[in-house]
Amino acid sequence: MGSSFKILGSGAGPGVPSFFCDCSGCREARANSRYCRTRSGALLRSGNANYLIDTSPDLRAQLVRENLEGIDGIFLTHWHFDHFGGLGEMEYYVKLDRKEPIPLYLPPSAVDSFHAAFPYLHDVLVPQPWEFGKTYKRGDVGITALPANHGIETAGFLIESDVSRLAYFPDTSGLPDVTKRQVEAIDCLICDATFSDSNWFPDSHMSIAEAIELGKSIGAKNTVLTHLAIHYGNPVTVEELNGRLSDLPNVFLAHDGMQFNLLRGADEDFTRK
Known about the structure:
By secondary structure, this protein is α/β, with parallel strands linked by helices.
């Protein structure tokens, strides 16, 4: 079946639209569902195996949308609710279908928090602390946890096949130097671009302009902006954002369901949605 990386959710914590918000971006999403954004998460497919990167509170809807029938492992970037809140969705899948626990790779500092938050999942998920710099080989693809800047212990993941390199950093404020060195000249950088203009939380997130600059600084062949809030500061629509990006041929907005073929090298057919 090959190997691919798919963005399950491209939104920040509030999602788009938010139930409490009537900004221009939320109105756009209510009028046209293709502009809706569920909370951030991704799916790595390697052969016949499926691995989740983060489990947002919208996980069930994301898995139903993708017609996904099985999960073979879960990697968490960090322990914030919008990235782990869907873990409980695995309970009935494991008990009624899979019949064996799922490996859960998570930050070492989050293991105790996992047990405290989900004491009833001890026979559903097996927590295994990931290690920075360690590559987890899954079929034709390697997954390496790299340090991110997000206030608490947080990783992004470097995804590598024989012909393609992709980095996924949904929550980060820039990148530590040790991480920058490992993602230089990457085929695709998918990164935090929470704020459309001014950055309210510069120690943990990036604005769109900062994310674009990060892509340039590491020589990324393509930069994909994810974890988009669109509400904060001056609200903005997708049509307006695509207009801003029209002169940047290698910068794209992520959208739910966006997929990257990991066996095609750097020639991915990016399109604006």
